[in-house]
């Protein structure tokens, strides 16, 4: 069944709890070019195709404005639509209705190639579990986003720095199969940051990790916000929820 | 979940079992349908009207030239009787070439309508007695003429042209001039009354060609201008035993029935027969009897008139002696000889200048022509003329036919001699015709019909390339007279007799030559060479007449027991198809060989085309010889039945083997796919405490369900087809499946990582483009890559095999009549098998392609998420497929070449090209399909 209710709370600039806000009404707003990511009245439904199955509404009327340097957490139980919101935000899937703005530009007006180009420049997406490409070392995985622009050699040092930053400076020649889950997650974050990303979209970064590894990931994410990078993260990790600037809890 | 449920759930195993059952069904298709159809077709079509050809001399080899009777004889009548007495002989039908007979065609003439109207004195008793078909006097139309009252001067140019279908030759051209005009009726008083005569107009000179042409004359209906003699026409005469020949040909030999009633040798005295017919006229003969033909010893001789006129002519010229015999003949109706007679008519003034072109009239020998018989083959009609002669009805006018006895000769026209050339890539036989002598034709007779000398200057003799052999006996036999008993239609006989008329010495027809390349070796539109009066050495037509062996003795001066039989066609008593009759036919042939004769088994043979280069075919005025080019002629391949059966059976077995190979590969791929799907499941079961033994049983139980299905299908199919080959295939498939089961069980015991990690980064190509990324992925998943490459290679090889087969079937159909029929009988199953191979290749690519489908989907998703645009993702897929295709290319091309070499060696190159194209086509298609 569809879960129609989104509850949003905001806690900008402070560490204390802020009251929960009822979900915003659907308002078509003027785009804010300073806002890296904005989701407006997003509804996501699955099914209801030719097979005659009833459509399942996962998200309805979801709004989000993500500012530079802000970490927003989407929390909720499994199947509540966290990953769906992230993939819509990253432009990987289209919402059933509603609009997605990247730095004020609606994705509706973009073609596939433009979306891909803009995503490469703007969004760093980290899949659940930190999916890496087998057969390529950690360093090569990090450099993969630079391939389309032919900047592999130019970004090699930056990739090494990023791997150092995430604590994998000594494991950059290891293959995914030779890395632990947390290490793969960190490689994936490094890979997401290689092109100077302004929005980091991270799906369940601490799932299946021990506390120490999870804290390390959370720390890295928090550090990126200090560089002005907006982070949209889906998680039900309490620590991550606690440290995020704002929270949407999907019921 | 029990084993059956697990088996059904496992689509891979279900697919594998289905494919293997399909492979078994295909084997049944091949064995019980295709092979049976092939055997049946070959058997039914490789036993003609006779089984053994007996000759005195040994044939040249396995490929027999299609000679008609050659006149060399060599077999005696005692030997013929001995063969007939053999217990295995059903029919023994002898055949020999009697003679080449040269005859002058009746003098051609040009009739210009100059009808004078009814006149009782000229119409005579025909109308008075109302002869059959006569028109009553008051119904005769008014006088009519194409000539003018005043004479006009005309120039007539007569010419004869002959063509062999490739080149045309003018045999002569002769011109005569003179004045012609409308005739008048002149009534004059004579003793006892008035006489009426037809008189030429005043000043008419008439037109006369050189002798023996007789000038021009007026009659009641026409002005007739005698034209130059047409060229001589030569016909061959063969001898058969009419009774045996009818037994051989069946109802299609009924035309020989009159010959069976011909008088015995001692009752064929030409003088006595001539006197008998003279007596008929002396004593009076009714018109009905004339039309039907007077009775001669129980046969109505419709064509008695030619015999009579030739008898009278021979008697007049002293050719008729006491030894002269009348030779009974069944003559061919129609001719394929191309001979055209033309007359150009021009009105001229006194200075010889053309005033008016009246027109050109022409006539050819055609289907109405009868050798030894034809009356007026070249009567031409002045433009605008109407023939009113039928107003008289039938006045007892009979077919005068030839007026000069024909010249019988033992200058036989034999088939050319050949030298073997290289065999062509497709197995076609290459030969070269060995030129024979040049002989002179187109000459005029020394004397005309009335004994006057002939002006020889009006005709240029023509040199003709001949393959004649002079078998003159040295004895000058008395001039025989042709006594025509009936006619035969060569086309009808050829159709009814089938291959008997095309097999060596089978009948009366030489096999035609078809020109396919000119002298320079360039392809030309296929043209069948016509018999002509120029360069006729290679192409001659059906025998002009058939006689019996008494006729042969009379014409050639042999006694009736001489060794004059060219060949004997023997049909064995054994009934049934070729295979059924083969042992008895071979026994019969051995018995004949024991008599010192050559016995060639023609049952099981078939016709096939031989390419023959013909040099020195014609020469120009300077005497320089030119080649004709390359012709094709149907020869006879001995043991073609076994060769065709062996060849096509080989094709079937090869296809079956390849199909099984494809099934084996597919089973392997399916098993790998099964192992991958079940590995995690096996791990879970292990974690739950299952022992290795139990896991092994768990796997084998699933395979066991498929094995039971396969076994049941195999038993049913084997019983249905009742073929050992099918049973063996079913067992092989079952063994294959069992092997796959054991392999799967073995693999699931251990958790091994199949994908291998690159060990040395420095040796790897850095990933900096879609191409290098694709390369790295394929290098990482070597097993998957190689599996897919092998699958694509198999697909390419299968396409190559299909193309080889598609090329081979029409070639086989064209190679010989038998192979054509046989190929047609197996074409559909063979193509189905080859298509099945292609389908197996395709399914194999799909199965192996799925090995890495999930991994591929995952990394394409990752790349998309990090901003690789759709074009770059497409490039990755394209480069991956291109790299797989690069590995598959040699497999596909070499596989296709190999299959091509097995199926049709000459088509192997095309098969290789097809394999190459198939693999190259797979690359973009797979790129498009895998999104």
Explain this structure.
The complex is a heterodimer of chains A (251) and B (931). By secondary structure, chain A is an alpha/beta fold. Chain A has 7 helices and 11 strands. Chain A has helices at 82-89, 112-122, 138-143, 156-165, 181-193, 211-226, 238-243; strands at residues 6-10, 20-22, 37-46, 56-66, 71-76, 97-102, 105-106, 123-126, 199-203, 230-234, 246-250. In chain A, the strands form 2 sheets. A 7-stranded mixed β-sheet of chain A has the order 2-1-11-5-10-9-8, sandwiched between helices. A 4-stranded antiparallel β-sheet of chain A has the order 4-3-6-7, covered by helices on one side. In chain A, β6 and β7 form a beta hairpin. The model of chain A is unreliable at 1-31 (pLDDT under 50). In chain B, the strands form 9 sheets. In chain B, strands 1, 3, 12, 15, 19, 26, 29, 30 and 31 form a 9-stranded mixed β-sheet that branches. In chain B, α18 crosses α21 and α21 packs antiparallel against α22. Chain B is α+β, with helices and mostly antiparallel strands. In chain B, 42% of the residues lie in helices and 21% in strands. Chain B has 22 helices and 35 strands. The model of chain B is unreliable at 752-760 (pLDDT under 50). Chain B is elongated and about 145 Å long. The A-B interface holds A 90, 92, 112-113, 116-117, 119-121, 123-125, 127, 131-137, 140, 143-145, 147-148, 150, 152-153, 173, 175, 177, 191-192, 195 and B 753, 755, 757-758, 761, 766-770, 773, 776-777, 779-781, 855, 858-859, 861-872.
């Amino acid at each position: 069944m569809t879960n129609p209710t989104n509850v949003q709370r905001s806690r900008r600039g402070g560490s204390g709890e802020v009251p929960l806000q009822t979900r915003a009404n659907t308002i078509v707003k003027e785009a804010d070019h300073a806002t890296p990511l904005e989701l407006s009245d997003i509804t996501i439904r699955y099914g209801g195709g030719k097979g005659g199955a009833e459509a399942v509404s996962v998200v309805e009327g979801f709004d989000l404005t993500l500012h530079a340097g802000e970490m927003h957490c989407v929390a909720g139980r499994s199947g509540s639509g966290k990953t769906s919101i992230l993939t819509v935000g990253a432009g990987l899937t289209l919402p059933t209705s509603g609009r997605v703005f990247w730095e004020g530009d609606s994705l509706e007006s973009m073609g596939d190639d433009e979306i891909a180009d803009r995503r490469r420049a703007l969004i760093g997406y980290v899949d659940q579990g930190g999916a890496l490409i087998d057969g390529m070392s950690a360093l090569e995985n990090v450099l993969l986003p630079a391939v389309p622009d032919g900047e592999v050699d130019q970004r090699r040092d930056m990739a090494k720095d990023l791997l150092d930053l995430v604590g994998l400076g000594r494991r950059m020649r290891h293959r995914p199969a030779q890395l632990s889950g947390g290490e793969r997650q960190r490689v994936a974050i490094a890979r997401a940051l290689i092109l100077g990303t302004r929005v980091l979209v991270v799906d369940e970064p601490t799932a299946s990790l021990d506390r120490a590894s999870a804290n390390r990931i959370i720390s890295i994410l928090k550090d990126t916000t200090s560089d002005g990078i907006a982070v949209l993260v889906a998680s039900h990790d309490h620590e991550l929820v606690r440290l995020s600037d704002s929270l949407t809890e999907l019921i | 979940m029990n084993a059956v449920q697990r088996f059904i759930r496992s689509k891979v195993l279900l697919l594998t079992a289905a494919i293997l059952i399909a492979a078994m069904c295909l084997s049944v298709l091949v064995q019980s349908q295709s092979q049976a159809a092939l055997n049946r077709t070959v058997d039914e079509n490789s036993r003609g009207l006779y089984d053994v050809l007996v000759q005195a001399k040994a044939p040249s080899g396995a490929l027999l030239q299609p000679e008609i009777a050659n006149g060399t004889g060599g077999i005696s009548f005692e030997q013929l009787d001995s063969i007939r007495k053999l217990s295995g002989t059903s029919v023994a039908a002898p055949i020999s070439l009697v003679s080449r007979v040269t005859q002058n065609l009746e003098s051609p003439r040009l009739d210009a309508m100059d009808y004078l109207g009814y006149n009782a004195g000229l119409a005579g008793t025909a109308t008075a007695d109302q002869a059959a078909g006569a028109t009553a006097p008051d119904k005769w139309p008014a006088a009519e003429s194409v000539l003018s009252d005043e004479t006009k001067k005309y120039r007539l140019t007569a010419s004869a042209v002959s063509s062999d279908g490739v080149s045309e030759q003018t045999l002569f051209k002769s011109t005569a001039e003179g004045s012609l005009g409308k005739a008048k009726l002149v009534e004059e008083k004579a003793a006892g009354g008035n006489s009426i005569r037809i008189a030429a107009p005043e000043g008419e000179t008439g037109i006369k060609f050189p002798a023996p042409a007789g000038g021009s004359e007026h009659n009641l209906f026409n002005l007739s201008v005698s034209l130059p003699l047409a060229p001589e026409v030569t016909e061959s005469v063969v001898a058969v035993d009419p009774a045996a020949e009818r037994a051989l040909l069946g109802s299609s030999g009924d035309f020989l029935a009159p010959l069976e009633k011909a008088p015995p040798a001692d009752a064929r005295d030409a003088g006595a027969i001539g006197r008998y017919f003279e007596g008929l006229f002396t004593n009076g003969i009714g018109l009905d009897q004339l039309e039907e033909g007077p009775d001669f010893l129980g046969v109505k001789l419709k064509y008695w008139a030619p015999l009579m006129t030739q008898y009278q002519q021979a008697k007049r010229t002293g050719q008729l002696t006491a030894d002269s015999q009348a030779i009974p003949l069944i003559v061919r109706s129609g001719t394929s000889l191309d001979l055209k007679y033309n007359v150009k008519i021009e009105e001229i003034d006194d200075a010889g200048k053309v005033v008016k072109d009246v027109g050109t009239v022409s006539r050819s020998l055609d289907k109405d022509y009868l050798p030894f018989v034809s009356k007026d083959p070249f009567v031409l009609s002045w433009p605008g003329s109407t023939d009113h002669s039928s107003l008289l009805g039938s006045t007892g006018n009979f077919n005068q036919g030839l007026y000069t006895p024909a010249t019988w000769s033992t200058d036989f026209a034999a088939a050319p001699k050949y030298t073997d050339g290289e065999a062509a890539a497709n197995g076609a036989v290459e030969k070269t015709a060995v030129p024979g002598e040049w002989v002179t034709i187109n000459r005029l007779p020394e004397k005309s019909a009335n004994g006057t000398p002939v002006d020889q200057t009006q005709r240029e003799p023509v040199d003709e390339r001949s393959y004649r052999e002079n078998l003159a006996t040295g004895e000058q036999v008395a001039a025989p007279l042709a006594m025509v008993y009936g006619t035969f239609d060569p086309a009808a006989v050829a159709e009814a007799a089938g291959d008997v008329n095309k097999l060596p010495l089978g009948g009366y027809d030489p096999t035609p030559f078809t020109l396919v390349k000119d002298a320079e070796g360039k392809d030309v539109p296929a043209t069948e060479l016509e018999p002509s009066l120029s360069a006729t050495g290679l192409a001659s037509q059906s025998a002009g007449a058939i006689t019996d062996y008494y006729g042969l003795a009379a014409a050639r001066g042999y006694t009736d027991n001489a060794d004059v039989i060219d060949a004997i066609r023997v049909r064995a008593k054994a009934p049934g198809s070729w295979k059924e009759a083969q042992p008895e036919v071979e026994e019969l042939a051995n018995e004949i060989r024991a008599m010192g004769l050559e016995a060639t088994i023609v049952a099981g043979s078939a016709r096939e085309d031989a390419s023959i280069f013909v040099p020195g075919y014609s020469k120009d005025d300077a005497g320089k010889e030119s080649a004709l080019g390359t012709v094709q002629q149907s020869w006879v391949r001995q043991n073609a039945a076994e060769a065709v059966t062996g060849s096509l059976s080989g094709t079937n077995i090869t296809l079956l083997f390849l199909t099984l190979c494809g099934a084996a590969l597919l089973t392997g791929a399916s098993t790998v796919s099964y192992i991958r799907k079940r590995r995690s499941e096996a791990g879970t079961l292990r974690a739950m405490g299952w022992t290795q033994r139990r896991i092994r049983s768990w796997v084998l139980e699933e395979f066991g369900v498929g094995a039971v299905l396969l076994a049941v299908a195999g038993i049913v199919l084997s019983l249905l087809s009742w073929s050992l080959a099918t049973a063996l295939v079913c067992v092989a498939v079952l063994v294959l499946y069992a092997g796959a089961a054991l392999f799967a069980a073995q693999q699931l015991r251990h958790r091994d990582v199949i994908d291998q990690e690159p060990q040395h980064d420095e040796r790897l190509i850095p990933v900096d483009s879609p191409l290098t990324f694709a390369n790295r992925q394929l290098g990482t998943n070597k097993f998957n890559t190689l599996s897919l490459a092998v699958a694509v290679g198999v697909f390419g090889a299968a396409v190559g095999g299909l193309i080889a087969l598609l090329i081979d079937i029409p070639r086989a159909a064209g190679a010989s009549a038998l192979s054509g029929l046989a190929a047609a009988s197996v074409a559909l199953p063979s193509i189905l098998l080859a298509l099945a191979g292609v389908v197996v290749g395709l399914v194999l690519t799909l199965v192996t392609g799925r090995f890495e489908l999930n991994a591929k989907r995952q990394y394409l998703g990752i790349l998309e998420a990090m901003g690789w645009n759709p074009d770059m993702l497409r490039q990755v897929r394209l480069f991956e497929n291109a790299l797989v295709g690069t590995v598959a290319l040699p497999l596909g091309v070499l596989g296709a070449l190999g299959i091509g070499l097995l199926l049709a060696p000459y088509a192997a190159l095309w098969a290789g090209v097809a394999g190459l194209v198939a693999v190259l086509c797979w690359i973009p298609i797979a790129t498009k399909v895998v999104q």
